[in-house]
Amino acid sequence: MRNRSRTLAALATAGALTLTLTACSSDDDGGSETPADGDWSGETLTVMHFEGQDSAMGIAWDRAIEIFEEETGASVDLQLTAFEDLRTSAEQLFDSGDAPDVAEYNKGNATAGQLAAIGVLENLDDAYEEYGWGDKLADSVATTAQYNEDGIMGSGSYYGVPNYGEFTFLYYNEDMFAEYGLEVPTSIEEVEAAAQTFADAGVTPFAESVQEYPLGQLWYQLALSQGGRDFVNAYQLYTEPVDWQGPEISYATETIAEWVDNGFISSEVTGMTAEDAGLEFINGDVPMFYSGSWWYGRFLTEVSDFEMGITNWPSTDLTPGSGGNMWVVPVESEQPELARMFIDITMRPEIQALLGDSGGLPVAADPADITDENAQALIELFNEVNERDGLSFYPDWPTPNFYGDLNGVLQGLVNGDFTAEEAQAELESYYEDHVADLRD
What is the pTM of this model? Predict the structure, then answer.
């Protein structure tokens, strides 16, 4: 019987990778040795994550725990925490006697990268080779699992296994589009034409928030539509200086300013949260919302007065998104071998299908394995992005404080306090203060 220490359930949308469990022998440096008969009876694996019990990830991980206990004879001590609590406590927790054996943790330079650089996370290179995890990861997903000695993602050793996917796309109100005689946009010109039609009719086209992430992600998507992988690598991986007055960022910033002037985006978004924007879409007040896959399950449940459609942002090969949060093994794990075995179970096809049918987003799944048609639609959309290796991370990743910096500058842009050129100069200053010393 596993002991469930539930402190707080958080984050409802999830997915996983598709892998097959293989046998492994212990080569850890401090954990229990693999029993000769493969029976781990009497051993306990402490698993920590921050998924809600009824979320896709929570459902899938509970089933993985059942399989793990059945096959190993070991028991699981499941500890649930909050995303933000773990983000702030992980450095000390993972390097202490209270460390879990395996935990879900946030990816990126400022989180997993930082802990990898200071030696708080186990290097998983040998586990990747043993289980073949790397063969299942698209390059843009693997980027978030690898960190160099400075904690910068994209190269070096593996310190985690991304356990679901996430990306941003356009949600739209099919009924409102039909009412105004509009088709699903297949180009940026059609997006703007549809927005103009709604604005002319007194309807604000886009639900948005600049207090939180939505407008920043739209800004980044617009920049990505004008750039290629070199731009992403420069911006995210510091491979070369970013031109903050160049065509990618200038297009994004100028377009946001124009869309505010044209009434496509309300100036009131400066006081709105992501929840406010989501509710505007749910309530049918606006026809379009550009945001992430984490809203999908909720919209399916709460949108009741209209038909909802989803489509990838047009006129682009690159899309904000990444592999999701990762399984990591803290350096103080007492059961690193069992931790790896558990991670691998979570990647089995059986868990993949359960996760997908529960509303999650598998990183590498065949839609034919998923029985729910809404889940199939989301996975097919995600696979379109993966097939072009389009996942391009998120705009706030480059520095620990860039989330607040970007939101603050975009608030100034929407308010008219900054011109596009001035906004870009402000962002460049914040960015370079952190990145200049890290760039190759």
Answer: 0.79
